[in-house]
Specification:
about 210 residues, mainly alpha
Length: about 210
C-alpha cells in the first residue's frame, strides 16, 4: 500500500550507464554530470565506484531490487496456475486459504520468510495484495450462491427422470391445479460464500502442469 513520495530511483539502466561512462571517460566531477542526466551526484558516485571496481563492466546491475521477495517469479506463476485450476474445478480458495497455501509452499521450498509468516502460519495481507497486483489475470470474485443439495442432484440419472415425469403428465392428464411443489422448507438452504481467488474472466480448465 506504499505510495512513492519522491522520484528517487526512477533513472533507468541506460541513463545511469551513460552518465557513468561520461564521468569515467572525461574525468568530469559527478556533480557536473548529474545536472545533465538528472541523477543525484551521490548515486552517480556510488555507481562510478562500482563500475571501476568491476573493471568497467557495462552489464552491472542498477536500480533498486526487491530483496524481500519470498517467492521467485516462476514460483509465483506455479501458484497462479494452481489457483486457476482449483477455481476451474469449483474448489476456489478464499483469502485465508490463499495465505496459508503461500506459507506452506514457501516452507516446503525452505524459503526465507518474515517472522510473522512463521508465527501465524500464513502469509501476510500485504503479500496477498501485492500478489494480486503482480498477476492481473486473477482477482477476488464472489461466487454465485447455490445449495449443496441442488449441485449434487444435478447429474445424468436425475435429469433423465424428467422424461418419466412427462409421461406421467400425459398418462394421467394432470392439470396445473393438480401439481404441488412440496420441497419448500421455509428457509434458505443456500449459504453465503466469501470472495475467492479466481480468473478475472470465465475460462476453461487450464491444462495440467507442474503441481505444487
Amino acid at each position: 500500500m506504499y505510495k512513492r513520495k519522491t522520484d528517487r530511483g526512477r533513472a533507468d539502466h541506460e541513463q545511469i550507464m551513460t552518465a557513468v561512462r561520461k564521468v569515467d571517460d572525461t574525468g568530469l566531477p559527478c556533480r557536473n554530470v548529474t545536472y545533465e542526466h538528472g541523477i543525484l551526484h551521490c548515486t552517480l558516485r556510488r555507481y562510478c565506484i562500482r563500475y571501476r571496481s568491476n573493471g568497467g563492466d557495462g552489464d552491472m546491475r542498477t536500480g533498486y531490487f526487491n530483496a524481500q521477495s519470498v517467492l521467485s517469479i516462476d514460483e509465483e506463476q506455479l501458484l497462479v496456475d494452481y489457483v486457476q485450476r482449483a477455481a476451474a474445478l469449483y474448489y476456489g480458495l478464499n483469502t485465508m486459504e490463499m495465505r496459508r497455501l503461500a506459507y506452506d509452499y514457501a516452507k516446503k521450498l525452505e524459503k526465507k520468510m518474515p517472522n510473522s509468516w512463521a508465527s501465524n502460519e500464513k502469509a501476510g495481507v500485504d503479500w496477498l495484495t501485492g500478489f494480486l497486483k503482480r498477476h492481473r489475470e486473477i482477482a477476488l470474485r464472489t461466487p454465485e450462491a447455490t445449495s449443496l443439495r441442488r449441485a449434487m442432484s444435478f447429474n445424468r440419472a436425475n435429469v433423465a427422470l424428467f422424461n418419466n415425469l412427462e409421461r406421467l403428465y400425459l398418462r394421467k392428464a394432470l392439470t396445473p391445479a393438480r401439481i404441488w411443489n412440496v420441497d419448500e422448507m421455509g428457509r434458505n438452504p443456500v449459504r453465503s460464500s466469501r470472495r475467492l481467488v479466481s480468473n478475472k474472466l470465465e475460462q476453461s480448465c487450464p491444462p495440467k502442469g507442474d503441481s505444487l
